[in-house]
Each structure stands twice: as C-alpha cells, then as structure tokens.
Amino acid sequence: MTMQHRLISSPLQGFTTFRFRNAFHQFFDGMDIFYAPYIRFNGKMEIKSVYQRDLLAKNNTGLTIIPQVMTCSADEFIFAANYVLSLGYKELNWNLGCPYPMVTNRGMGSGLIANPDKIDRILDRVHTATDIIVSMKMRMGYDHRDEILGAFPILEKYPIKSIGIHARIGKQLYKGGVDLEGFQQCIDNTSQKLYFNGDITTVTRFEEMTNRFPSIDHWMLGRGLIADPFLPSMIKNKTHDYPENRIEVFSKYHDTLFTAFEQKLTGEKAVIRKMLSYWEYFATTFPNAKREIKKLTKVKTFEDYDEAVKRVLDCEVEMA
Ligand SMILES: Cc1cc2nc3c(=O)[nH]c(=O)nc-3n(C[C@H](O)[C@H](O)[C@H](O)COP(=O)(O)O)c2cc1C
Q1: How much distance in Å is there from the Cα of 49 to the middle of ligand 1?
Q2: Which residue from 51, 143, 234, 278 has the highest number of Cβ atoms inside 10 Å of its Cβ?
Q3: Diameter of the chain measured on Cα atoms
Q4: What is the pLDDT of residues 250-294, one digit of tens each?
C-alpha cells in the first residue's frame, strides 16, 4: 500500500493568517492542516485581538486549524491552552523554532531547545493543569544540531502528539541548506512522531525528501506554499505540471487576497506594501517576468499596481 502523505501549512507570522488561508482555500486544495502563526504574550496575560480574530471559527470555515503559542512560561502556556480550548480547539502547538535574537535571548523559540529542564517543568505543569493536546515545532538547536538530542528524553515522558522539525539550527536563521543528516539523527533518536519541515518548494524536492525519509508521512510547507499555491495539489496529484488555466486561477486568487487586505488596511500604500511582501515569494515562480516584477515593486498607487500585475501575468502567459 502506498503511504498517505499529509501536508501541513507551516505558519508564517504576517503571511499565513486567516485572510491568506481563506483565499487559498477558495481556489486551491491539497493542504490538510494549517498551523496558525504563534500567539505571543508581551508581558500581559491576555490574548491580543489580532490573534483572537485569526482563530475564531467564523474566520476559518472549512479549514483544519491548529493554534500555536510561543512562550517560555508555563502560566502563559496554560492561559493560551485554556483560551484555545474555549474556542473548541483540542491541540496547541508549541514553537521552539523561532531563531530571532529578540526571542532566543529571552529563552524562547529555538533558544529553549538547549534547556531540557525548563521544557520539562513547563510540559509537566501544562499536562497537569489542562487537557490540551500538545504538539511541538522545533529547530534542531540554536547553536548546534545536537541540542535537540538532549531534549528528546524529556519529551518521551509526555504524550506529545507530534514534533515538526525545521531541519536547521537557530543561528543559521534561514541561511544555508537544511541539514538532512541532522534530521536523520532526530529520526534515529526518538520514538516521537516527527514531521519534516524545510525548503520544500517544488514537487521534485518533495519527492527527493519522501525517498530520503521513507518513515515520514507529514510534511510542512512554509515559504513554498506562499510562493506557489499550486504546490500542494501538484504534490498530491503527483504531477510536475501546472493546470492549463494557471494564470487565470492565480489572478483570481491574487485579487481575492488583495480585496481582503484592502478591507483590512488603511491607505493604498499599506495594501501595496502587504501585497509586495507576498510578491517576494510569488516572484520565485514567475521567472520569465523578472523585469516586470522589478517595476511592480516600485508602484505607489492602486492603478499602477493593477497595471504592473497585469504585465507580470501577461508576460507569463506569452512565455507559456
Ligand atoms: C516571515 C516568517 C514568519 C514565520 N513565522 C512563524 C511562526 O509564526 N511560527 C512558526 O512556527 N514558524 C514560523 N516561521 C517558520 C516557518 O514556519 C518554517 O518553519 C520555515 O520557514 C521553514 O520552512 P519552509 O522552508 O517550508 O519555509 C516563519 C518563517 C518566516 C520566513
């Protein structure tokens, strides 16, 4: 029997929020689960309204969502767990992956991986105080890929549902390649259910990873999903070819995303800035339109933006 692969949307703060997820869901499929970007506390024991909106059932119709928290405090974790339980969620994903010094210097994100005692204390309190199902998302360490090996024995004590591993270390940020030997080392040193994450941006790459790690059946797509919303269905359909109406579908998807941000943000500049942050990723899948995309990044009004996008898409149609 062939393996059933599951695809998970790896969260990107500021990108994979509910407006993106809904636009994706309207035009594409292939994604089984969406991890929501992390909830973070800034000294106050409250869930900011921006996180609340992102998780409300009415904003996530038809989608399977798993909320995430980034914290090194058991109290905050329990508060977040009770909040998501009150919304009807059963699982909370714990972020031990974030690489940014602002976070890691405070002992959070990937800065927590090398501190198994603290992980132990937090998991102990969370499992005593709530019925939340805990899953984790980790890098392999902050300074060294072996840090995670020190955490595994602690994690074995708890009913962790899964550990998604972004196969880098924190201090790499996003540079360099993913460390596939390091990921193999993780497989060899834990009985936990592991998900693979990192640099899956094409069907070919997905196939390489499934061949290399035959025991893995959950795959997390982050930047690759934003760059190419066709990727999950192409992976699931085992095809390397885009549908014939690719540009037409992409165009409608783009317009839906644009309208969603136009309703949320104030001023043309803010909407354009937001859309251009997506175009940084989209650009990688429009190699024939490099010059047009460069022009697109300079527009200041909606009128110019619309025209520039049209030129990008026309260019791709002509080259197809
Ligand atoms: C702008 C940005 C924001 C991110 N926000 C989150 C986040 O909220 N939670 C999280 O677990 N990972 C976050 N990540 C990491 C991604 O989920 C993912 O692990 C990483 O990009 C590697 O996977 P990829 O190569 O498929 O993108 C973020 C990454 C980027 C680039």
Answers
A1: 22
A2: 51
A3: 61
A4: 999 999 999 999 999 999 999 999 999 999 999 999 999 999 999
- The distance from CA 120 to its chain's CA centroid, rounded to whole angstroms, is 25
> Residues 147, 104: contact at Cβ < 8 Å?
no
Half-sphere exposure of 144 (CA within 13 A, CB side): 7
> Which of 12, 38, 197, 225 most suits a substitution to test ligand 1, by most atoms within 8 Å of the C-beta?
12
List, for residues 190-234, the tens digit of each pLDDT value. 999 999 999 999 999 999 999 999 999 999 999 999 999 999 999
Number of neighbours of residue 19 by Cβ within 10 angstroms: 20
Cα of 300 vs centre of ligand 1, distance in Å, is 29
pTM check: above 0.90: yes
Instruction: Band the pLDDT of 158: cuts 50, 70, 90.
Output: very high
DSSP letter at 92 equals: E
Q: Mapping DSSP to helix (H, G, I), strand (E, B) and coil, where does residue 240 land?
A: coil
